[in-house]
Amino acid sequence: MGRSDATALSDGDAALVEDLLAGSHRALARVITRIENRAAGYRGIVAALHEHTGGADVIGITGAPGAGKSTLVDKLAAAYRDRGDTVGVVAVDPSSPYTGGAVLGDRIRMASNVGDMDVFFRSMSARGQLGGLSMATADAVKALDAFGKDAVIIETVGAGQNEVDVVRTADTVAVLVQPGSGDDVQTLKAGILEIGDVFVVNKADMDGAERTLAELEEMVHRRESPTKGLDGGHHGFEVPDHPDDGTDGDGEGDETVWTPDVLRTVANTGEGVAELIETFDAHATHLRESGAIESTKRRRYAEEIRTLVRSDVGALATAEIERRGGIDALADSVRRRETDPYSLAAEIVEPIADCVDDGEL
Question: Where are the stretches annotated Disordered (predicted)?
Fold first, then answer.
């Protein structure tokens, strides 16, 4: 398949891509800025980078505020560098209601890695776009991957649905919980449990650490039991008999199921960081050797395609609404009982549907 007009590269953007692939940190920073701002031509840039991706281990770090994610990410980056790996960090921060930028974007972070050009840190925000944060994050990860980073870490500021969507960009997801946070552990049961490949009790030198560890171990045990009504699947590791879990569908191949580890760390001192990286490496190896990484990528790309198509079709529909006088004028016509929302929606979508039927879209 050739590249469409929407992803065609200008000469300047082609040179920017070439510079990034040649190892220019300045070009990498410019590309990620273009991605975050959804600036003209960014799609062509990301499309050109796609064939150069696939070499990085992508790790997501999520959990409730106060769990110590930033400190742990700092120590993880330092540990990766100590063993000779290059690192990219995308820190997903909340959007400022005034500027649209990352509220925490200017904070002092990655203190252990200041001045190290092989640790690239970038703070990102949603810019007020629904669903835009997860797409922008995924595209930034592609840029870092294509650049040649060995490990790319995605850090989210919280553990809500937006952050869950973002962290799904990662191949391996670590969920952080702090000791004594009973409410946080209960919250995990409502959704975050399903996305974790590793559960980490950070600040494990605090009171209540052993109890929190025990609670998480019990939750993982329940997750692994289909009779408990919990979906144990994540990144291709479903419970047995799932057709996409690396088994043959008849219950064989239980060895391909990844059982999440529950680890303890003290990020301030670096305690447990080496063991955590070993677990990340083990999960990455497990994904590759079981073949589950392929089904993981297939599902991820399928969702990315759906998201992009929904966005593009929505933009076409918005343009048709404006051509008809704008949404307020259409709403007034409904208010005056001249028409109804269903009829208007059908009229707006009809020209798009006609183009699809004619093979022109």
Answer: 222-254
